[in-house]
Design a protein that fits this description.
Length: about 475
């Protein structure tokens, strides 16, 4: 009978579960959708019990689809920055899961900015004041869902905390350092809940979970439908961080770019650095009491520019658009800046809007198509330029994941414009695999990082091929486009 790790990836729209063997192979998968609610404009929330039940359904489907196994441990990867409150005695949710997308605390964040608190918050947490992060949402939950209860009777936590609580039979209120680092209540250089931040946001420390390493035996299953008691829950980590670990980014400066609607760029660092304008600093994960830090930049519009451009140009789909883009050697000076919902890292300008410039009578559909493709690479380069200037070291191995990462043409452009090779991932479950690897390390299923690295779950390494003078010329045109967009 095979031994395996059960890894859960509780995302925004789906709960997933996979079984990972000792050789790193995925033996089975299961998934279940998670509904999202929009009770008011700008408000985004989910139901806590639905998240737990969808997790159980994904686990059941995964175990039913897999071979007979001995279940060694459970690992958790979860959507970041979503937060909820529940009753410490009954275990029942006291209100909604206020998700990372929710903007209901925008006014509170603006008030804190106006009062001059942002620089100190960034210095302690690596994060700017924004309703994306949970601190103001925690205060909202206390004001609106827990005002009749004493702090010691309330648990407030991120989604990993909620899953750990349920796996433990309602006995353990814990989270990991990567999730704590995203709350804006955690001092990431001192690795503890910060008294001054809790005072600033009006959050009593009594409601917060105890923080553990990402690779740690948090609890053992107790009374969980479909699972035997006593299975160690041996990892918890935010999903983007989990993907970084799942790729094997264990060396100094190793990183990954996840391509989707937007893009997440993350590279590791050995110690905390107050982030430069445009990116954030976070705890990527922690093991054996030692955190690994990371710079992170989030791009708002990445691969989503492709279907928009395909429709604009009358192309059947993105595949046809990219085929068209490859029929020309350059854009004939055309630049497309996809600021359709504003610009993310490193510019962070919410009022910017998309722009196309450099048009001439020589410009055709193929040149616009290529400009759309290039915009994905140019935006990654903008983030890497900031990281390289502030990290104190170079970029190590760079992994890419997400649907667009499988396209050699697009990834060739990324390699060209960041002037660094990129390694394609073979797995579509990097987050869940990262959680599995961390759980396996905590339980001895894998001996060390070398054992995980030897599993070899990687695809092609794509090298830059562009000439240096052409690269500089194209980047210069892009910067002109950015400057015009920001006017």
């Amino acid at each position: 009978m095979q031994r395996a790790i059960l890894a859960i990836d509780e995302g925004t729209t789906n709960s997933k579960a996979i079984l990972v063997s000792k050789t790193g192979d995925i033996l089975a998968r299961g998934s279940c959708p998670v509904p999202i609610n929009h009770p008011q404009s700008g408000w985004v929330e989910q139901d806590a019990e639905t998240i737990w039940n969808s997790t159980l359904k994904a686990i059941a489907d995964c175990l039913a689809a897999g071979p007979d196994i001995t279940l060694e441990a459970i690992g958790i990867s979860n959507q970041r920055e979503s937060v909820l409150a529940w009753d410490r005695t009954t275990g029942k949710a006291l209100g909604p899961v206020v998700t990372w997308q929710c903007r209901r605390t925008s006014e509170a964040c603006e008030g804190l900015k106006a009062a001059g608190h942002e620089d100190e918050v960034i210095r302690r947490t690596g994060l700017p004041l924004d309703p994306l992060f949970p601190a103001t949402k925690v205060r909202w939950l206390l004001d609106n869902c827990g005002k009749d209860k004493a702090p010691e009777d309330i648990c407030i936590g991120t989604v990993d905390s909620w899953l750990i609580w349920n796996f433990s039979g309602g006995t353990q209120h814990l989270c990991d350092s990567s999730n704590a680092a995203r709350t804006q209540l955690f001092n990431i250089s001192q690795t503890c809940w910060d008294d001054s931040l809790c005072a600033l946001f009006g959050v009593p420390k009594a409601v917060l979970p105890e923080v553990k390493d990402s690779s740690h035996i948090f609890t053992h299953t107790a009374g969980v439908p479909g699972l035997p008691d006593g299975i160690p829950v041996a990892s918890a980590i935010g999903d983007s961080h989990a993907a970084l670990f799942g790729h094997g980014a264990y060396g100094l400066g190793d990183g990954k770019v996840t391509f989707g609607t937007g893009s997440s760029v993350m590279t590791t660092m050995p110690e905390f650095v107050v982030p430069p304008r445009g990116v954030t600093t976070t705890i990527a994960w922690s093991r054996n009491g030692k955190p690994t830090y990371a710079f992170e930049g989030n791009i708002l519009v990445s691969a989503s520019i492709l279907p928009w451009t395909a429709e604009l140009l009358g192309q059947k789909d993105v595949t046809e658009l990219l085929d068209l883009a490859q029929t020309v050697e350059d854009t004939q000076g055309v630049v497309l800046v996809p600021a359709h919902v504003g610009l993310g890292a490193p510019h962070w300008n919410s009022t910017a809007r998309g722009l196309m410039c450099g048009l001439s009578f020589a410009s055709g559909k193929a040149h616009v198509a290529r400009a759309a493709a290039e915009s994905i690479a140019f935006q990654v380069q903008d983030v890497f330029e900031i990281i390289l200037a502030n990290s104190g070291h170079g970029i190590g191995k760079l992994f890419v994941d997400g649907g667009p990462s499988q396209n050699p043409f697009l990834m060739g452009m990324v390699a060209d414009y960041i002037d660094h090779s990129v390694i394609q991932g073979e797995s579509t479950e990097a987050s869940a695999q990262g959680a599995a690897y961390l759980a396996g390390l905590a339980t001895g299923f894998w001996a060390d990082l070398d054992a995980i690295s030897a599993l070899g779950q990687h695809g092609q390494e794509i090298q830059p091929t562009i000439a240096s003078d052409r690269r500089k010329k194209e980047l210069s045109k892009w910067q002109v486009g950015i400057e015009r967009t920001l006017l």
